[in-house]
Amino acid sequence: MESISIHIDDVSKTYANGEGISNISLSVKRGELVGLIGPDGAGKTTILRIITTLLLADKGMAMVEGFDCHKQYKNVRRIIGYMPGRFSLYQDLTVEENLKFFATIFGTTIEENYELIRPIYSQIEPFKNRRAGALSGGMKQKLALSCSLIHKPSVLILDEPTTGVDAVSRREFWEMLKGIKEKDIAILVSTPYMDEASLCDRVALMQDGKIMQIGTPAHITSQFAHTLYSVKSENMYAILKSLRTYPLVHSVFPFGQKLHLTLKTGDAADAKHFLQTQGFEEVTIEQIVPNIEDCFMELMSSKKTEV
Amino acid sequence: MKRFFGFVKKEFFHIIRDPRTLVILFGIPIVEIMLFGYVITNELKDIPVAVLDKSGDEVTVEIQNKIYSSGFFLRGGNLYSEKEIEKAFRKGHIKQVIVFEADFSEKLEKEGTAHIELITDASDANTASMIVSYTNAIIQDYMSYRNRQLQMPLQINVETRMQYNPELKGSYMFVPGTMALILMLISAMMTSISIAREKELGTMEILLVSPLNPLQIVLGKVAPYFGLSIINAITIVTLGNLVFGVPINGSIVLLMTLVMLFILMALSLGLLISTVAKSQQQAMFLSMFVLMLPTILLSGFIFPIENMPWLLQVLANIMPPKYFIIILKNIMLKGTGFEYVWKETLILIGMTVVFIGLSVKKFKIRLE
Hints:
The complex is a heterodimer of chains A (307) and B (368).
Chain A: E1 4-14, E2 20-29, E3 33-37, H1 44-51, E4 59-64, E5 67-68, H2 73-79, E6 80-83, H3 95-105, H4 114-124, H5 137-149, E7 155-159, H6 167-181, E8 186-191, E9 202-207, E10 210-215, H7 217-222, E11 228-233, H8 236-244, E12 249-255, E13 258-263, H9 268-277, E14 283-288, H10 292-306
Parallel strand pairs in A: 3-8, 3-9, 6-7, 7-8
Antiparallel strand pairs in A: 1-2, 1-4, 4-5, 9-10, 11-13, 11-14, 12-13
Chain B: H1 2-17, H2 19-38, E1 47-53, H3 58-68, E2 73-79, H4 83-90, E3 96-100, H5 104-111, E4 116-120, H6 125-150, H7 170-201, H8 203-208, H9 214-244, H10 252-276, H11 280-298, H12 310-317, H13 320-334, H14 342-362
Parallel strand pairs in B: 1-2, 1-3
Antiparallel strand pairs in B: 3-4
Helix pairs in contact in B: 1-9, 2-7, 2-9, 7-9, 7-10, 7-11, 7-13, 9-10, 10-13, 10-14, 13-14
């Protein structure tokens, strides 16, 4: 219990329009990177805002490093590093001025904590006299991350940091997070990208304001109850339509260039046979290991049938 | 304290780097004072006046000469019959026709009275009544001059003196009014917009999740605009003095102190607006609507408060610019000291305290 940094217990929050989050429990240890994964509107930002003291929960308790996010919000605000979903730095200030400003309002200096941000900031330091508004998306993220780390927070909260960033910058960004994590900082990050789940120590899959499943990526994928096949062929759309009429199919989703298929009973041979009777000759079906997105789709569809 | 200065520095960067803000801050006051000073003036100058002189004797000519040499009126030509009057007005050029009755000087000599008819284009009512009263005054003046020569036994001479503004200059009135308007608008609008901008761009979110407390954020926002507004006030007073000859008869120190008080009041009002407004546009409209119109209409700037219906008079009493204009007129034109404006000063201080208190209280330490 000692090393738990962020702890939220049975937190609910409903907005005026009826949306919100319900009964969320989650904890992040020091030096752990936890991802909140789910589509837009799943409630990720709401959770992060409750932890960052920007919103009050209707019910439940949120704690950061032993401080209550409601009553002791001032203490929480001192030790938290927060990077909102939107680029929220001053576009008319230069890179260096932005960093300096955030250092000043947290009562520190760039020099004092330079070591922590060096791996990140050194990449954008050549452009330190450029206005933040003129930076590329990837560089903006690096600057925002630097600014949120400048006061050596013990907790780092990132709201969709990689949305709208190119693939290379995204990979770099996750590398940086790994580096920060090693400084014993607890990191909670939200993302709509399922492929980023495997980069987290633990992930919480979210949908409609609820956490559907939480655990290490390996644990979650091991919970996948079905055998998963990938289907590859020329005419994907026709095959998808045709498979949806096949009574043995449990689920079938397009997945990049392939289809991911699970069956109620039977195996690959049965499916192949069915497709051949439907007139699809050139079909490859092979068993694959499920990834987080498969688990997510599975959880989502099983939830729908429950309702 | 270091945090506070860091914040103020950041605000200065915002102001200096945004050309639009700079234009609003320094361009508008100058343009506005020039506009109000030159355009919106209720002084008469070069009004074309025609004459229908049925008598044409020395007295009527003398009166005409007096009227035309006053500087207020221009010769608008002579008419020769009543029918032409309507036509002259229709053309739209002539604003007044002066009709002297026939045998004017004879009647004046023998009967002691003679008639002059003033026919005035009253499609602009204010100007019309001013033209009439100016003309009247000139004729009266002529009469008393004549009477003095005749040594009338009894006569009452009314001598009027327009105190503090002997020439009834409009700019004397407009400089204090414009100053109130500009300081109110600039101070309140700029602060409310700059806070709304932080909300709109999402930077407020980061500011909130920082150890800055509301007072630091609020004061950090206000401080730079306070400085700039003082510069503005100095510009306006100087322009008024140099260009329009508006005097500063009272103490400059007292004047500037109270100007600062008013700026502070306007800034705190801006803060209050920003606690309500969610976007820059909202902040701007609110400032315009809540501040500009009432300042122009209800502050006694253009329309005298005494002539309003009582409900509007009550409203005018809660308009801060009203008191500021009273203070300005007292100090600048009458040259009075603090003992004559302490009541207004107290009211402004009270309003400032209320506005600041409300804004700090209403300042949201969280998102909605």
